[in-house]
Amino acid sequence: MVVAAAEVESGLPVPADQGTGGRQEASAQGPAAEDVAALRGAVLILARRLRHQQAGDELSPSEAAVMGRVGRSGPMTPGQLAKSEHVQPPSMTRIIERLAARGFLRRDPDPTDRRQVFVSRTPAGDDFVERSRAVRTAWLARQLEQLSEADQQAIADATAALTRLAESP
Q: Looking at residue 105, what is its pLDDT?
């Protein structure tokens, strides 16, 4: 049975194909709705659990996102950060202040416009991010060790496709 994409995205129940024991068959047009929903749920839960694995000082999800954004993009103005993280400038200012107070971010004046500042990670911020990555990697490795060898291999085999999915526009 072919399921319309709008039905899958709506989150509304989609009738099961009677000939498949309630599971809709994948078609040439894409995977079965149940498979898409199960993957979405598993990815969301796993991402949430991974986000909670940090190296000590607990960061809010917004603070962690800013630390990641500045690390990936390099120095940014508070306005650029607010826009990229889809928050209002006053909220971003508070996030930057909290991270700067912890020594994770610093503000440097713009050499061409002294009214503006650039926000960048400090060595302590870089260290925190690296330690948190190590904590998350170790946590995920422990979780994988609890699975059967077949499940571990299935996840290893799916990693390249999941990476392509994550990087797609």
A: 97
